[in-house]
Amino acid sequence: MIKSFKKNDAPPNRVKPVPLRVIRHIAFLAQHSLNSSSHIVATSDMIILAFFFLLRPGEYSDTDSRDSDPFRLCDVQLFIGDRRLDLFRDSEALLLQSRFASLTFTTQKNGIEGEVIGLACSGDPYVCPVKSIGVSCIFETTAHPQPRL
């Protein structure tokens, strides 16, 4: 029976990752362009998160599905040392000082629910997963000041 699954399930297509210099260029332009808006910066941050957390855009493009959300605010954790920050109550300045971020993936293709993946600051002034999550949280909590679970 397992052999028949292997025969029916096409092998994954291997693709090369986007070069980091492309991600860096996108982030630089988003932060320094004269025409840059908060939406452009937010889009840049989503690209950075997809790069660092190896999200597959095609898996999240079906907007009619619950599985189309890679994560929600309740799935995000930001830390300074051992202190977990409150995304809704802590200041923007404090959120931007976070040094570690983690995301809880509630649904995954591999069937592992609730897997937590965390990353520390990259040290890059433009391409940092922690900074991108912090800015994204600020953008989202400003747009929706009440916690949405």
Widest beta sheet: strand line-up: 2-1-3-4
Note the total helix count. Answer: 5
Strand-pairing-aware structural class: alpha+beta
Gap from first CA to last CA: 41 Å
Weakly predicted, low-confidence segments: none
Helix content: 25-40%
- SSE succession: HHHEEHEEH
Calculate the mean pLDDT score and round it: 79
Report the sheet with the most strands, covering strand number, pairing sense and barrel closure. Answer: 4 strands, antiparallel
Q: What portion of residues belong to β-strands?
A: 5-15%
Estimated radius of gyration: 17 Å
What's the total number of strands?
A: 4
* Global geometry: globular
Oligomeric state, counting identical vs distinct chains: single chain
Short description:
The chain has 149 residues and is α+β, with helices and mostly antiparallel strands.
